[in-house]
């Protein structure tokens, strides 16, 4: 009887796991599905006192209206350039610094780790005035370069903390073995350590990209020209002076604004989910 119940118990446990996973996926996907449903509804359905989850008469009028009212394509291009530049610069700076923090446990490295933790406690409001004054002196107000600089500084502490953990997961014996074989420090870092850090680098790039793509407050304060504004700032233009939102076009624009983040994640997800040290150490 015990042997007979075991397969049934396993199937029940697996069914429960899949059910819980499906419920979690639906919970995560609910905002996106709600945006899509709202974007496809007509104004009459949006104003109905008994709204339906699935549009009765789907229409793309909200998408056309959103692009007609606001320069969404140009704003999306601005956001894309800023986010890509932020991801690249953050990775280039964070990778060598994280290696030093993880491999050389000096006072400076411990102080840098403490700075990483403390810096995350400061809210945006306390930072915007000194940042604005510094960028004004550097003549980087209303400049994508200044915005990228701010995003890199804001993303760097968490990126360092994330990459330092990946560096510590790489066995130091691999680098020692490469040194015994005659490889120099630079060759060891580029040929041995860096490939093993690929999942961490991909995760760091994804974090920096999504942070810059979705950020609103700094972009609102630092960018003045309409032609330089990023997509999150342009989305606020669908809200009228009295605080009434043009719900259909806003939902359509917001749904389209989420797609680049999902596409970028799809590009790097294999690196993120792959094993960090798969095949690196022979047993």
Quaternary state, please?
Answer: single chain
Q: Supply Rg.
A: 24 Å
State the share of residues found in helices, binned by percent: over 70%
Average pLDDT rating: 81
Which class best fits the helix and strand makeup? mainly alpha
The total of beta strands comes to 0
Description:
With 283 residues, this protein is mainly alpha-helical. The protein contains 13 helices and no strands. α7 packs antiparallel against α10. Keywords: Cell membrane, Membrane, Transmembrane, Transmembrane helix, Transport.
Q: What's the short version?
A:
The chain is mostly helical.
Topology:
Layout: H1 2-39, H2 43-46, H3 61-69, H4 72-103, H5 107-119, H6 124-137, H7 144-169, H8 172-180, H9 185-196, H10 198-214, H11 217-222, H12 231-235, H13 247-273
Helix pairs in contact: 1-13, 3-13, 4-7, 4-10, 5-7, 7-10, 8-9, 10-13
Task: Throw out a few tags for this protein.
single chain, 283 residues, mainly alpha, globular, disordered C terminus
